[in-house]
From TrEMBL:
The Cytochrome b5 heme-binding domain, residue ranges: 15-92
Regions crossing the membrane: 121-139, 145-165, 262-285
Record's keyword terms, sorted: Fatty acid biosynthesis, Fatty acid metabolism, Lipid biosynthesis, Lipid metabolism, Membrane, Oxidoreductase, Transmembrane, Transmembrane helix
Pathway: Lipid metabolism; polyunsaturated fatty acid biosynthesis
Name used for this protein in its record: FADS2 desaturase
BP-aspect Gene Ontology terms: unsaturated fatty acid biosynthetic process
Sequence similarity: Belongs to the fatty acid desaturase type 1 family.
Highest rank taxon of the organism: Eukaryota
Cellular component GO terms held in the UniProt record: membrane
Gene this protein is translated from: Fads2
Lineage, opening ranks: Eukaryota, Metazoa, Chordata, Craniata, Vertebrata
């Protein structure tokens, strides 16, 4: 009984202590515990209400999630209020802070590095940088529509428009990535609002879908059954272990010995599928449809103001269907290649395997590599050429990656962790390899 009980008040609840052996048993779909800064939380019921999705928090069940928690939340103090009712105890005094014999000194040094980056204000975004970035995207969009207005839709104009809009769409993709990771504004709500504008109104895709998948990728990169980006739905077999597994089970949905060849035929479908599937139902409608949803859709896009979000999202696809603007198919083909080559060059050539329960630094380093820095590479990849720094610090504004890079390289050298960096051309070749 605590002091409250001794003074005649309500007794304070006793703190329960747990061992790692017990905590690791609670990693089931219906029973999830995790540890943050030595405190044990039961997130079983909370997982379904988790803003980042129930899967991303479930992937850390039975583990020390301290570094993941710090990496994804820009206001840990606020989030602690949600954690408080979930607290069930602490690690026993004799238990190490890290599970599964992880290198505690490496973990502590990484957390010191993060604190150093915070003290250097590297998590503070530059409003000018992101304003200019958004401005150059909008300028390209306006230029394209002006060309349609004054030059029509001839073949030469179409090809020029395809290049302009491919560039604006690719750059909008990198920009939505920034807001999705909460790396621009200090308040999460502002990041979410602008993220929905950029990915919904400029890209025509779903912010919720992006959050659901992308945070899983960052939580457990290149881990089968946890990272959706390496779940290729039997189209490709990846890494060193999956081909062996498929071979033993005699699973052959496609001729995998030729996957490096049909890779070129499938990537152009990626972005088209992701965006067009979101809009397909509406595109198949006609103005003569009588359902309330169809009537709303056609009345919305015929409005001069075009103020409805869904109508703005679907308008480019509607125009493509009516053959008023013939370049969207070319645009999506080019954008798909840009998107896929850039996003895969940092991960596909790296280790892809089952869960190994590494510490945060080691797990991210095993799954990511960097591309050499240049002004073009920074712009072309949306600073994803700094994939290592981005994965270690997802909420850090991308224009500060180059500043934290020397600290990361130094820490990796200290512990013999591989820090891989390569030219852009070699990174593309390595995907096929």
């Amino acid at each position: 009984m605590g002091k409250g009980g001794e003074q005649g008040g309500e007794p304070e609840p006793q703190i329960r202590f747990y061992t790692w052996e017990e905590i690791q048993k609670h990693n089931l779909r219906t029973d999830k515990w995790l540890v943050i800064e030595r405190k044990v939380y039961n997130v079983t019921k909370w997982a379904n209400r988790h803003p980042g999705g129930q899967r991303v928090i479930s992937h850390w069940a039975g583990e020390d999630a301290t570094d993941a928690f710090q990496a994804f939340h820009i206001n840990p103090t606020l989030v602690q209020k949600f954690l408080k009712p979930l607290l069930i105890g602490e690690l026993a005094p004799g238990e190490p802070s890290q599970d599964r014999d992880k290198n505690s000194q490496l973990v502590e040094d990484f957390r010191t590095l993060r604190k150093t980056a915070e003290d250097m204000n590297l998590f503070r975004a530059s409003p000018l940088f992101f304003s200019l970035y958004l401005g150059h995207i909008i300028a390209l969009e306006v230029l394209a529509w002006l060309m349609v207005s004054y030059c029509g839709t001839g073949w030469i104009t179409t090809l020029i428009l395809a290049c302009i809009l491919t560039t604006s769409q690719a750059q909008a993709g990198w920009l939505q990535h920034d807001f999705g990771h909460l790396s621009v504004f200090k308040k999460s709500s502002w990041n979410h609002i602008v993220h929905k504008f950029v990915i919904g109104h400029l890209k025509g895709a779903s912010a919720n879908w992006w959050n659901h998948r992308h945070f899983q990728h960052h939580a457990k990169p290149n881990i089968f059954k946890k990272d959706p980006d390496v779940n290729m739905l039997h189209i490709f077999v990846l890494g060193d272990t999956q081909p062996v597994e498929y071979g033993k089970k005699k699973l052959k949905y496609l001729p995998y010995n030729h996957q490096h060849e049909y890779f070129f035929l499938t990537i152009d479908l990626t972005v088209c599928y992701l965006q067009c599937s979101y809009c397909l139902t509406f595109l198949l409608m006609s103005p003569s449809s009588t359902s309330p949803q169809q009537s709303w859709f056609w009345s919305s896009i015929s409005s001069p103001a075009l103020c409805d979000g869904p109508a703005r999202i679907l308008l480019p696809f509607l125009i493509a269907r009516s053959h008023m603007l013939p370049q969207p198919n070319t645009l999506r083909f080019l954008e798909s290649h840009w998107f896929v080559w850039v996003t895969q060059m940092n991960h596909i050539p790296m280790e892809i395997d089952s869960e190994k329960h590494r510490d945060w630094l080691s797990s991210q380093m095993a799954a990511t590599c960097n591309i050499q820095q240049s002004f073009f590479n920074d712009w072309f990849t949306g600073h994803l050429n700094f994939q290592i720094e981005h994965h270690l610090f997802p909420t850090m504004p991308r224009h500060n990656f180059w500043k934290v890079k020397p600290l990361v390289k130094s820490l990796c050298a200290k512990y013999g962790v591989q820090y891989e960096e390569k030219p852009l051309g070699k990174a593309f070749v390595d995907i096929v390899g």
